[in-house]
Specification:
Elements (H helix, E strand, L loop, with lengths): L8 E2 L10 E4 L4 E5 L1 H7 L1 H11 L7 E3 L4 H11 L13 H10 L3 H13 L1 H8 L4 H13 L3 H13 L2 H5 L7 H9 L1
Parallel strand pairs: 1-3, 2-4
Antiparallel strand pairs: 2-3
Length: 183
């Protein structure tokens, strides 16, 4: 449903009235959510809202840089009234990054749990990842300390053409040497 403001669209999962704050995604979708819950799970949102209270007017709208698809997943993770979202291997890196950005550790825990519980289906899908996607997953696995993500990315990178790995930013790291030894 179109919103009254120019080119804004309301979220179907978090429609107007669902919460007391409007989160506006980069693709112009408005997600209504509970300010207190965001502040509770995220020190970043807590500080953002606290700073807003000192201004002359209390803002009920926050523009964010993330796409609505990722914000919806994030909000589904933290909202006890929502079913946990279905994940796929392609969205894990983006979800981990938004969880890191807003300091919501539950996202890392849920991603790790999903990877552990879906190893067989994820293994089949890793063969469809590009070398660049595998490198990104490896970096995320290292950054967020998720060993299973590292294993899956390495499994794909071992099969990748060496020239694709060599031209990547990975080729300048110590990890590149270890990967070449595995091959």
């Amino acid at each position: 449903m179109a919103n009254t403001q120019t080119d804004l669209h309301d979220s179907e999962i978090f429609p107007p009235g669902y919460g007391d704050i409007r989160l506006i995604s980069s693709d112009r979708v408005v997600l209504s959510f509970h300010r207190w819950l965001l502040a509770y799970v995220s020190p970043v949102f807590h500080d953002m809202f606290k700073l807003g209270e000192t201004k002359e007017h209390d803002s009920h709208e926050v523009s964010l840089q993330e796409e609505s698809r990722i914000l919806t997943l994030l909000l589904q993770f933290i909202d006890p009234m929502q079913d946990k979202p279905d994940l796929d291997f392609q969205v894990i890196p983006q979800l981990l990054e938004v969880g890191r950005k807003y300091q919501i550790d539950e996202v890392r825990k849920q991603a790790n749990s999903w990877l552990t519980n879906n190893c067989s289906t994820v293994d089949d899908k890793t063969t469809k990842l590009s070398t660049a996607q595998s490198i990104e997953l490896l970096e995320r696995g290292i950054t967020y300390e998720i060993p299973r993500l590292c294993q899956l990315a390495l499994r794909n990178l071992i099969k990748a053409p060496a020239r694709e790995i060599f031209v990547s930013r990975l080729s300048t790291s110590e990890l590149f040497e270890h990967l070449m030894e595995l091959r």
